[in-house]
Amino acid sequence: MAKIIIFGILDTAELAHFYLTHDTEHEVVAFTVNREYMTITDFKGLPVVAFEDVETIFPPEDYKFFAPMTGRKMNTLREKIYLSAKQKGYELISYISSKATVLSDALIGDNCFILEDNTIQPFTTIGNNVVLWSGNHIGHHGIIMDHVFFTSHVVLSGHCIVEPYCFLGVNATVRDFTHLAKGTLVAMGASITKNTEEWGVYIGNPAKKSEGKLSIDVY
Ligand SMILES: CC(C)(COP(=O)(O)OP(=O)(O)OC[C@H]1O[C@@H](n2cnc3c(N)ncnc32)[C@H](O)[C@@H]1OP(=O)(O)O)[C@@H](O)C(=O)NCCC(=O)NCCS
Known about the structure:
six-stranded parallel sheet, alpha/beta, UDP N-Acetylglucosamine Acyltransferase, domain 1, 3 helices, eight-stranded mixed sheet, 2 domains
């Protein structure tokens, strides 16, 4: 059991507060955001403090940190806060839902946010700062690297490698033994049958790299 500071005051932070409160022994004690976004000083009945000052008010020796942010800017905003919190000396926790099916030898890094109904098969490695929203299938012998975002109901077949910063839209499917290069955006409903190129947007079934101006700045 630890006392936790959550980064953010929007939906994801509210959900993190809900999950930690209802499904872990941790105690959430405060929220933090960058000073320029501090529109409130109280959220869920707890104090909101400026991220710039957080370590002086809640010292890293006594408190742990959780930054389960969205995938905006291809996960780079979440990466920035993750690295800053580590630099301040915080240990970052991971949340893994009690309703996820995680086989005991799967390796999972820090600051991961893994919600209900995910199936993580054996011999899988999940890096740091990875979000698996609800209901994904992570096939056996898979490797998911740091700063990756799975939305919901993605099927990652066995033996796939997902490089940093990838974002997988709802209901995407990835063929076994596929390598998703750094920063691949898999559109919702896309079916990936071949390895991808860095920072490519892949769309359709079978998925093709978009040559148009489809945005990698998802939602
Ligand atoms: C691929 C994606 C990033 C493109 O977003 P965008 O740049 O805003 O694109 P638009 O919505 O303007 O759509 C542009 C065109 O592509 C089509 N399109 C968009 N996404 C598509 C998809 N996944 N499959 C097929 N066609 C798609 C649109 O219908 C539109 O077609 P049109 O030009 O004929 O009207 C986005 O559609 C996507 O898949 N995002 C992931 C959403 C998601 O999973 N959210 C989960 C939140 S938890």
